[in-house]
Automatic annotation (TrEMBL):
A family per Pfam: Glycos_transf_4
Ranges of Basic and acidic residues composition bias in the record: 451-460
CDD domains listed in its UniProt record: GT_WecA_like
Its membrane topology: Multi-pass membrane protein
Name this protein carries in UniProt: MraY family glycosyltransferase
Residues annotated as transmembrane: 20-45, 66-86, 106-126, 138-160, 166-185, 192-210, 222-240, 282-308, 337-358, 364-384
Compartment(s): Cell membrane
Superkingdom in the source lineage: Bacteria
Annotated keywords: Cell membrane, Membrane, Transferase, Transmembrane, Transmembrane helix
Species of provenance: Frondihabitans cladoniiphilus
Chain segments carrying region Disordered: 418-460
Source species taxonomy: Bacteria, Bacillati, Actinomycetota, Actinomycetes, Micrococcales
InterPro entries from the UniProt entry: Glycosyl_transferase_4, PNAcMuramoyl-5peptid_Trfase_CS
């Protein structure tokens, strides 16, 4: 049955080291190439001033080149070509022969990636309209589907094949375009998309690798290879994208990441034979569907909320604004670094939790998810308590003391307050100042305990 046959290791058949070794080699090649070209893109972008102007919705203050997607693309291409032509020479055995047995799939992936990167770079430099970008995304996704990278079945506790070739093509295009835009929507903080990509694809790589153990699927499969080279590209790019970032991946990198994540998920989900599913094991039967959604839970949530928000306001669903989840985290009081870590946490808890259904009884997995989600929620909402403490302190302070201390703008309930700027995210110093003002002083006093991780960022 499925859980035993597909997800349990056969003790009489020891795990070979060759698959892991060559996946790591592919990831390493992608990482090294991506890093080298990221440095080159940063230097060229800085030298020739290829950084676009800062937009109202941006959170960075210095113009920064957005050419990182080119470096990631080159890393992915070189790693795939190495696995195709170089690895057989190194190993003496063509381990990836089944992956490249249908070269049209690899060529379609590379062609679609090239289309996406070109569209993304042009948009990063000259700001294309959303209809042109969407048309390019549809063409790239259509190329994938046309060459056979398609959803052909949906494993829901039994055999559920996609109705026709036309339906398969349409569903594939919709899925790829949806994931591309979902990933692109969260690309607003330094290191966010690259880190989420590493975490989510690391989990998905384990799943795709375990799925192939002891079944008709070979250790060397397309989904695992794409995931490995994408992880490598993100690792190579991340050092230049860590806060404060020297280089952004731009739309080219975000859309490329989304396209490759969608492709790897389709390669697994769309080709599993649901007829082998054990109906008594309902949760494992849903893993091929749930896990791709779980690793994209944050991007998909942000995408869904953005579409609803913009459509309800009578705007295009692809119009830009400053109300994404990462913007809201900053407005709540999180620092840039803390907001990125929160996204990492949510992604890790949900994706790892879904993967654990493969290995552990359901009750332990639900316990892990419950504890993890509660911890993430507490950390996410923590700054609200500081904001409320500051508001309460300012409201209780004498008006003259609050104005002299420069914290009167945190009193959002006082309509008569001469607010000259929108209330920002209160820092630890703001909290000290507010408490001092309530005590009748006009300068901060160390009433509150010191915090070794004090927030020193300037707040708009």
């Amino acid at each position: 049955m499925w859980p035993e046959a597909r997800w349990s290791y056969d003790e009489t058949r020891p795990l070979r080291t060759d698959p892991v070794r060559y996946y790591l080699l592919a990831a390493a090649i992608s990482a090294v190439v991506s890093f080298a070209f990221s440095v080159l893109a940063w230097r060229l972008g800085t030298k020739y001033r290829l950084a676009p102007k800062i937009r109202e919705r941006d959170v960075h203050v210095n113009p920064t080149p957005r050419l990182g997607g080119i470096a990631m693309f080159i890393g992915v291409v070189i790693a795939l070509l190495a696995a195709w032509f170089l690895f057989p020479l190194i190993a003496g055995v063509d381990y990836f022969r089944l992956v490249f047995a249908q070269p049209e799939h690899i060529l379609a992936i590379l062609g679609a990636a090239l289309i996406i990167v070109v569209i993304g770079v042009v948009d990063d430099l000259w700001d294309l309209d959303w209809m042109t970008k969407l048309a390019g995304q549809i063409i790239a996704a259509g190329l994938l589907a046309w060459q056979g990278v398609q959803l052909v079945s949906i494993p829901i506790g039994g055999s559920l094949a996609v109705g026709s070739s036309y339906m398969s093509l349409i569903l594939t295009v919709l899925a790829v375009v949806l994931v591309m835009n979902a990933v692109n929507f969260i690309d607003g903080l330094d290191g966010l998309v690259a880190g989420v990509t590493i975490i989510a694809n690391g989990v998905f790589f384990i799943y795709s690798f375990v799925l192939s153990n002891g079944t008709e699927y070979e250790y060397f499969n397309l989904a695992a290879l794409i995931t490995a080279v994408l992880i490598g590209a993100a690792i190579g790019f991340l050092p230049l994208n860590w806060h404060p970032a020297k280089l952004f991946m731009g739309d080219a990198g975000a859309l490329l990441t989304g396209m490759l994540m969608a492709t790897s998920a389709i390669s697994v989900t769309g080709n599993i034979d649901p007829g082998t599913t054990d109906r008594s094991s309902l949760i494992p039967a849903f893993i091929p569907i749930v896990l791709p959604l779980a690793i994209l839970v944050v991007p998909l949530l942000d995408f869904g909320l953005a579409v609803l928000r913009r459509v309800s306001a009578g705007k295009s669903p692809f119009s830009a604004d400053r109300k994404h989840l990462h913007h809201r985290l900053l407005d709540m009081g999180h620092s840039h670094f803390h907001a990125v870590l929160i996204f990492y946490g949510w992604t890790a808890v949900v994706s790892i939790g879904c993967l654990l259904f493969v290995f552990l009884p359901a009750r332990w997995v639900f316990l892990f998810l419950a504890v993890g989600l509660i911890v993430c929620a507490v950390i996410t909402l923590a700054p609200l308590s500081r904001r409320k403490r500051v508001e309460r302190a300012v409201q209780r302070a004498a008006r003259i003391d609050a104005e002299a201390s420069g914290v009167v703008h945190f009193d959002r309930l006082d309509a008569a307050s001469p607010v000259t700027r929108a209330p920002g995210k209160p820092s630890l110093d703001d909290e000290r100042t507010a408490v001092s003002a309530r005590a009748g002083a006009t300068s901060p006093v160390p009433i509150l305990p010191s915090d070794p991780h004090r927030d020193t960022e300037k707040h708009a």
